[in-house]
Amino acid sequence: MSQAYPQLQLFINGQWLSADGRKSEPVINPLDESTLGQLPHASPADLQAALQAANAAFEGWKRTSPLARSDILRKAASLIRERADHIARCMTLEQGKPVREAKLEVLAAADTYDWYAEEGRRNYGRLVPGKTPTQRIAVHHEPVGVCAAFAPWNFPAITPARKIAGALAAGCTLVLKPAEETPATAQELVRVLHDAGLPAGVLNMVFGVPAEVSGYLLDQPEVAKFSFTGSTAVGKMLASHAAKSMKRATLELGGHAPVIVWKDADINKTADALVAGKFRNAGQVCISPTRFYVHRDVFDSFVTAFVERTKKLKVGNGLDESSQMGPLANPRRIEALTRLIADAQDKGATLHTGGKRMPGKGFFWEPTVISNLPEDAGLMNEEPFGPVALINPIADMDEALKRANRLQYGLAAYAFTQDSAVRQQLSNGVQTGMLGINTLSISMAEAPFGGVKESGWGSECGIEGLQAYCNIKLVSEDQ
To answer: Does 63 reside within a domain?
Structure first.
């Protein structure tokens, strides 16, 4: 397969549709601000055709055996692995992250297809003992129907993969709208399913003005459920819109992950892990460790270790294997970070390194470390979604939990300690959907991924992610 950036197309009812005769927009390379390609926008007729195709294909796909659905997903997973280098390169070109990070994400998408291929074969209901000898009670899991899915630009392979594989494994059909900034990655994930023999209409992919596409799809009675990954503000708007017709929803929304570094943590190992995790994908990660609360006994040594490692990071072209951090994906984050860091300094915070845009072409931002921020600083309340670490001291566990739980977010949290009693306090006390203790590994195909409070509804991946695409039906029989 060619290593060039692919021609961008819509995918409707098993057909690839070009930009000819359609509105389009440029896709920009964040490395140098050049144009990679022209992305077609779906017209109202295209959106209607995609929805009609998904609706027409639903009954046939619902009746397709779980084994046959599994075979297609497995074949698609194998094709992803065969094409991983090409897909990763597409991702780096349009999103900016280092190509080795991109390839790991592509392989994780393949694992997600594989996981759902297997879990879809085990979408068990159950038998419930009746109240009388002649009564039989059965619980069935049935596909909810036609679904819509909206995926973001920061992880353009794994987030569409979770939505595609979950819906298809359950027996649903899907209209997918990936992010317009990173279309080629999602396009290749759709292509492998087409090449694996997925029936026409089961999966459709459209692009366009996000509000117009989501508004159209969520207005349609045929759409039974939608899945969205993105900001809390947009998630609330979509949920409000969908509530008019009581559509099911899975929402993975914003985060502002706290990190509690306890006084017995191994400072060097902890700093190594957290620098790698904080600056992965230039901090454009919904579960990125961001608000660091460090016990005052080790605060100074942790800040020193973290800053030393941050200063050594190599920022550059994601296609260069030696680069450890690429550019931000778009200029919007530069504007936001400029504002937030100026506000923090005005409020007395200490800037240790970074803090500004790097000179030259591209959307590069210096890896940034700030300490001693007041809780009313914008950075402590608004998700920075960039390469910025915020480090504050804490005196005890009560303070740590109070500050960690202060915000409306509850997606991810982390802690580093060897004390079993402290681990128990953290497990019970941190208000979050996912907690990593002495690890940042909280995202995997076999376990639920989701938040609490204003960070979302429901989960993707794991058995919970499959059941999110199912209706639960009780059948009670008697003679």
So the answer is: yes
